[in-house]
Amino acid sequence: MSYSITEPSSRQKWIAGGLVIAYAILTLLPLAWIIATGFKTPADAIAYPPKVLFTPSLEGYVNLFTSRSRVTPEDLAALGPPTTWYDSIVRQYDMVITGASRYGERFLNSVIIGFGSTFLSVFLGTIAAYAFSRFKVPLKDDLLFFILSTRMMPPIAVAIPIFLMYRQLGLSDTHLGMILLYTAVNLSLSVWLLKGFIDEIPIEYEEAALIDGYTRFQAFYKVVLPQAATGIASTAIFCLIFAWNEYAFAVLLTSGTAQTAPPFIPTIIGAGGKDWPAVAAGATLFLLPIMVFTILLRKHLLRGITFGAVRK
Amino acid sequence: MAQIVIKSLRKEFGAFTAVQSSSFTIEDGEFFMLLGPSGCGKTTTLRMIAGLELPTAGEIFIDGTEVSQKPASQRDIAFVFQMFALYPHMNVRKNISYPLVSQGMKRDQVRAKVNEVAEILGITSILEKPVGGLSGGDRQRVALGRAIVRDPACFLMDEPLGALDAEFREHMALELRALHDRMRATTVYVTHDQLEAMQMGDKIVVMNHGVVEQFGRPQEIYDWPATTFVARFIGSPAMNLLNFDGMVGNGSTQVTLSDAAIKIPPMISGASGPLTLGVRPEHIRLDDAAPLKARIKAAEYLGTTQIITLDTPHGPVKARIASDQPATIGDTTGLAFDPRSITLFDPTGHALISEANQKVLSHG
Ligand SMILES: Nc1ncnc2c1ncn2[C@@H]1O[C@H](COP(=O)(O)OP(=O)(O)O)[C@@H](O)[C@H]1O
Ligand SMILES: [Mg+2]
Q1: CA–CA separation, B91 vs B111, rounded Å?
Q2: pLDDT below 70 — which residues of chain B?
Q3: A20-29, A132-141, B136-145: which range is least confident on average?
Q4: Which of A15, A30, B131, B195 has its CA 20 to 30 A from that of B361?
Q5: More confident residue, A50 or A124
Q6: B98 contacts in A (CB within 8 Å)?
Q7: CA of B46 to the centre of ligand 2 (A)
Q8: Which atom of ligand 1 lies nearest, measured to the CA of B207?
């Protein structure tokens, strides 16, 4: 079989473009549906046949961020006219806003735990990978294999021991506990990915820096780190995506103070309330940070993933 | 500016000995070549001088100070790496400034110094460019710039021209040598190319399997090799080595090969058994009257001279003779050697001392 290195014909380009678009539609459709549902009224959200065109409403978002209680029409009338736009939305259903919901807190927990564990995984991963790459470490290969072996079963397989251990140590439902857990899970990936990236950086750069009068640490910091930026960025994205989306451990180990958004979002649906727009709104907002993070680091990510294949 | 003295330097990597008890002296301002085939320990030796590798044993003196255990940054040396090692995330100016910034030099001083160096190397126009797109020659110049900007006591260069193509190498070699002649900084230069070493070096150390085979001026090494390895490694074509059984002693002035008496320089040391006679191709004449007979196998025309390959009972021989001298392939002729330029080697491959090579070989 021979491969053509000539410019693809315009028909080939059309077919390739068509396939890409078809695939994009396929993967983006559920996402679009979630985003749309977030702007529907509860009635529109469960309408059958499903509504593609609808009047947008912010009800989902209002419900997401508030807690409300039902009052009698008489009491409602006694309250006087609604003072804000979200008040008026809520009052259509004979409800009043009694305070903020927990979504904000849970979201913040996700940010703290997600980014905290990502930072820790990448930080520890970078220095461990540097050591494995540059120094004579006794039993290096065995240690690296051991580190990888922690990912040879699904992390959830050790859920029960971790649950018991965390209860004993007082780490259940704490930010620290969740950060440590996600760091532990991500670290092996991080060490292995980063070691590959650091291995690719010629050691001469550091030696040149040593001769130029820098200390070993300065050489690491000023020469190795900038060149490992691509690898660090792509590793960070992988770690963040895992920690951000992790559900099973979050359900098991958090319930209050340190609960992250993933276990919280399904509870929004409420008892019998079927508040799908609020759930969709919660999911939509939850997607945003990781989308922004990924888009910001996209250039690095693409280069990072193809690193081994098309270096330079 | 510095003198570098290497004393019984040794480096082991586990069970493997990369450099065995090397000793030599590099004088202040010298352009010094570390020459040897790939894997013989040149880079390792250079890295020990630089402080990137710690010796297993031995001493290194830079200007009288023992530095073998000091970190690289305290030795006041500059290293030009085989692959240049330019920082890819910095432009040319930043690359050259880097060693100065580490010393905490003021910004406008750095600027001025870098401009000056760029001027010397003719790279002023590319100062603000990223190093990624530079040609091999320009990368080489930038690497040199980074080395000379600091005015170090000495330069260490590990095959700095190895990454360039042949045509450009020659040009850069001249440029490098001219630069050295202007700056007169002690330079240690690693190469596996004997021609490069002969052309550029003030002095040469020839290494093989981690052992220093010989150390001296190019002409001395060329004329009076200390070992058969050096004889074979230097010169193109290399020195002819004819094997014969015989015996020489103090005062001997001739040896016998296939019943032909060959005059040699008066010997001072002696040996017996399987000996080797070394003679350069340009010191052989084809003379039908000479008693040592050989058959002409090939002739290679090189302009004013030609290289004739001959078969003798003692091994093949190459002779460099004038192009106009007739040589017919298949003919048998006699070989006459210039008696003043013959070296004899003992059964272990070491040169025997004669009145001719005594001066060169007795110092090492
Ligand atoms: N860090 C090292 N660990 C083990 N062996 C090494 C190391 N560095 C060099 N060597 C070995 O030492 C020998 C000499 O290497 P080197 O000094 O690089 O040779 P050269 O520069 O003359 O080609 C080689 O056989 C090489 O494999
Ligand atoms: Mg080398």
Answers
A1: 14
A2: 1, 363-364
A3: B136-145
A4: B195
A5: A124
A6: 209, 212
A7: 9
A8: 22
Domains of chain B with CATH codes? 4-223 (3.40.50.300), 238-361 (2.40.50.140)
- How much distance in Å is there from the Cα of B24 to the middle of ligand 2? 19
Residue B135 pLDDT:
84
Q: Do B87 and A223 touch (CB under 8 A)?
A: yes
**B298 interfaces chain A, CB cutoff of 8 Å:** no
pLDDT of residue A310: 36
pLDDT of residue A298: 80
User: Which chain B residue is nearest to residue A213, measuring alpha carbons?
Assistant: B73
- The 10s digit of each residue's pLDDT in B235-284 is 989 999 999 999 999 999 999 998 899 999 999 999 999 999 999 999 99
Atom of ligand 1 minimally distant from the CA of B41: 17
Q: 3-class DSSP state for residue B317?
A: strand
Domain A104-305 has CATH 1.10.3720.10: yes
Chain A residues with CB inside 8 Å of B134's CB?
A: none
Q: How far is the CA of B44 from the centre of ligand 1 (A)?
A: 6
Question: Chain A contact for B61, CB < 8 A?
Answer: no
Question: Does residue B50 belong to the interface with chain A, where contact is any CB pair within 8 Å?
Answer: yes
Partner-chain contact A211 B83, CB within 8 Å:
no
Q: 3-state SS of chain A?
A: CCCCCCCCCHHHHHHHHHHHHHHHHHHHHHHHHHHHHHCCCHHHHCCCCCCCCCCCCCHHHHHHHEEEEECCHHHHHHCCCCCCHHHHHHHCCCEEEEEECCHHHHHHHHHHHHHHHHHHHHHHHHHHHHHHHHCCCCCHHHHHHHHHHCCCCCHHHHHHHHHHHHHHHCCCCCHHHHHHHHHHHHHHHHHHHHHHHHHCCCCHHHHHHHHCCCCHHHHHHHHHHHHHHHHHHHHHHHHHHHHHHCCHHHHHHCCCCCCCHHHHHHHHHCCCCCCHHHHHHHHHHHHHHHHHHHHHCHHHHHHHHCCCCCCC
How many CB atoms sit inside 10 A of residue B138's CB? 18
Atom of ligand 1 nearest to the CA of B158: 21
Q: Where are the domains of chain A?
A: 11-101, 104-305
Which residues on chain B are in Cβ contact (under 8 Å) with A205? Answer: 85, 87
